[in-house]
Amino acid sequence: MSKYQTIYACSNCGAQTLKWQGRCQECGKWGTLVEQAVSAQKSTEKTVKAEPGKIIGFNEIKNESAERIKTQIKEFDRVMGGGIVQGSLTLIGGEPGAGKSTLALQIAEKIRDTLYVSGEESPSQIKIRADRLRIKGDNIKFSSDTEIEKICALIEKTKPALTIIDSIQTVHSTEIENETGSVAQIRTSAVKLLETAKKIKTPIFIIGHITKDGQIAGPKTLEHLVDTVVYLEGEDKDGFKILRAKKNRFGATSEIGIFTMKNSGLEEIKNPNKIFLPEKNIQVPGATVNSILKGTRTFLIEIQALVNKTIFGYPQRRAFGFDANRLQILSAVLTRRANINLTNQDINLNITGGIKITDTASDLAICMAIASAYKNKTLPNKLVIMGEVGLGGEIRNINKIEQKIKESSKLGFLNIMVPDSDSIKNISGVRLIRVKTLNEAIDKIL
Length: 446
Fold this sequence. Notes:
Elements: E1 4-10, E2 16-17, E3 33-39, E4 68-69, H1 74-80, E5 84-85, E6 89-94, H2 100-110, E7 114-118, H3 123-132, E8 140-143, H4 148-158, E9 162-166, H5 183-200, E10 204-209, H6 221-225, E11 228-233, E12 240-248, E13 256-262, E14 265-268, H7 273-276, E15 287-294, E16 297-309, E17 317-320, H8 324-337, E18 345-351, H9 363-375, E19 383-385, E20 388-389, E21 395-396, H10 401-410, E22 415-419, E23 431-435, H11 438-445
Helix pairs in contact: 4-5, 8-9
């Protein structure tokens, strides 16, 4: 009898089956079952007697604060929740060329003792990149090992302040006979790195590639194993990158960090509003300004809408940076409650700067942008619009609106359209345009 037998594991959810199937029965993904070899040795049927585990009273547990390492890169520390937590395992994902390795090298320079393990590039290639980024590298030690057992042993021996694995898809374990980069290899390597990080209380960064769908390549359990998952996003044509946390056990996932890519590497953007607002305020129909809250920071973003008559077929609804289903609802509300017939109009909506809006606080601004584009009339200059739109066309209050009003006034936007709510207090020097319904908002402005 063969020592190994074949099973099939889903690369998305990790479910296993004895026969290959086109679709995973657990998560429903197509073409994700990958062949794996497992030991087929018969296990001796023995009853293992184990002593019951110990119980600790919840009140007896000491509240230990997590020690954090500051990287002096404020945008990165903000996303991480204030710094790198000792003994944590962090996964950094992004498209090829997004700047993951560049960010890792810049972080390594800020930490007094860093071990950089790379299975993708040779030491000379890493040195060339470090020289281009003007990184001295006095605090960085390099290793080109790809065997995870050797890497973990090296980490336990040297006890670095930070370890960077570039990338998780290039390391392998000798305990299993799957090829490097397979689901089993990635899962096993991540588990060993997690055990090492918790054992000696050292933080470890692992860099992961993403698939065409924008997900981390490998098993979905990889994201469940690690403590923090951050994505580095951004288009090359825009020249800036957005670092956002998808998972963070030691902080909020609503924070974002904004960088710009230059020849010297990633540089922090101290005033992000310069990205999301145009340098020259050109008055065009369909352009509005909205205030959004990301973590603890308030951003002013420009929303652009373009409305054209449908030439053929059903009217199209396209949105970039906004939920398309929500756009359909707002279009129906405009048609039904505000007497703006959009049943034969294509709507194109764009949130400038590559930012993504997930809350409903931008409903009124989007509706006003669509109405402005439909009527081909420009909105007043230096106007910020905020509020939630209900299905009846009513304008509802939003969270932390006073913070958004104060931040907008600091940037010179003194005309602000808000819901007509008694909880919103007047602020000296700011003209609040209070509206109750969508019709009233359109009548006052357009």
